[in-house]
């Protein structure tokens, strides 16, 4: 346990990863940008392909309290600092809608990277092994997957 | 300035804070007795590692690959067919995907291409689009073999 006033081991590691090559490189490529960190939460915006009446960035509020164990990512409205209204979640083809699915849970994404989604989905550990959260890597593994979804043909903009 | 260094067997770049006046070999941690080449991302020409970063045109936020091979022989498998060609070691996987799904590859429609991704044959790992080919040939030096597979739909 961390001493009073001292950052915990998860906080130290998360802060260090935000300074490291993978996060910095993605930010420099314009794929994501850090909005705010108030441990154990971090709001990170991820760039989306241009779509009509849709934002250029989607924010996720990550809960990283047990980092480097899997985080959870909640779509977030940075203007009002609150969960994103379901109508403003990303929409698109079946694959996109499965991941951004407020009907399943408004606190997380339906991804093998997400701690909340992994609960009760033991089969994912083998079926989607290459996309299961790896505690030996950093937060960018989650960001990359979301960035890819928001920049593929199947993404059509906000759900509306 | 900051540069990003890609290496063999690592799928993530290392950030190196340096200066334009630093010798390339020093910035990339290359010893004089190492048989290692350096290439700028998506460029084929080998950098002169005895000159400074600014002399060879490596600027702030540039991505550079260092490794044993300048060229990588790439094979892509799809529907029982194969396509093969050489790329520079600093070529990103994303560019290989565009070649493999394009006219010189399997000539997929835009919609079909969007439903597929490159996976490494053997491990089934799906490297990110910005990983350099030279970072993927640890088991088969100078050679990388992919399969073009349907993207996952997370369900269940």
Please, could you describe this protein's structure?
- The complex is a heterodimer of chains A (160) and B (156).
- Chain A starts with 8 loop residues before the first helix and ends with a strand.
- The model of chain A has no long low-confidence stretch (mean pLDDT 95).
- Helix content of chain A is 27%, strand content 22%.
- Chain A has one domain (9-158): Ubiquitin Conjugating Enzyme, CATH 3.10.110.
- Chain A is globular, with a radius of gyration of 15 Å.
- With 160 residues, chain A is an alpha+beta fold.
- With 156 residues, chain B is mainly β.
- Chain B is 12% helix and 31% strand.
- Chain B is built from 3 helices and 8 strands.
- Chain B has helices at residues 24-28, 93-101, 110-114, and strands at 2-7, 14-17, 37-40, 63-67, 71-78, 81-88, 116-120, 143-150.
- In chain B, the strands form 2 sheets. A 4-stranded mixed beta sheet of chain B has the order 2-1-4-3, with no helix packed on it.
- Chain B is elongated.
- The mean pLDDT of chain B is 95.
- Chain A binds chain B through residues 20-22, 24-25, 28-29, 94-95, 98-99, 110-112, 117, 121, 123-124, 127-131, 137, 140, 144, 148, 152-154, and chain B through 2, 4-5, 12-15, 61, 63, 110-111, 114, 119, 124-126, 128-130, 151-156.
Note the gap between the termini of chain B. 47 Å
Overall structural class of chain B, as computed from helix and strand content, comes to mainly beta
Multimerization status: heterodimer
Question: In the CATH scheme, what's the topology name of chain A?
Answer: Ubiquitin Conjugating Enzyme
Per DSSP E runs of 2 or more residues, the count of β-strands of chain A stands at 7
How are helices and strands ordered from N to C of chain B? EEHEEEEHHEE
The largest β sheet of chain B comes out as: 4 strands, mixed
Calculate Rg of chain B over CA atoms.
17 Å
Overall 3D form of chain B: elongated
Structural class of chain A: alpha+beta
Return the average pLDDT of chain B rounded to an integer. Answer: 95
In terms of DSSP E residues, the strand content of chain A is 15-25%
**How many alpha or pi helices of chain A?**
6
The number of E-state strands of chain B comes to 8
